[in-house]
Amino acid sequence: MKIKSLIAMSVIAAILVSLTPAPRALADGAASTRNILLGVGAAAATLIIINHNKKVHQQYAQDAQAQAALASQRDDARAAYKAEVRAYDNQVAVTSELKKEVAVKDQMINQQKTAIDQLQTQLAQMGVQTQTVAAAPAPAPKKVAPAIAAHSAQIVSYGWGLL
Question: What is the pTM for the complete model shown?
Answer without folding.
Answer: 0.36
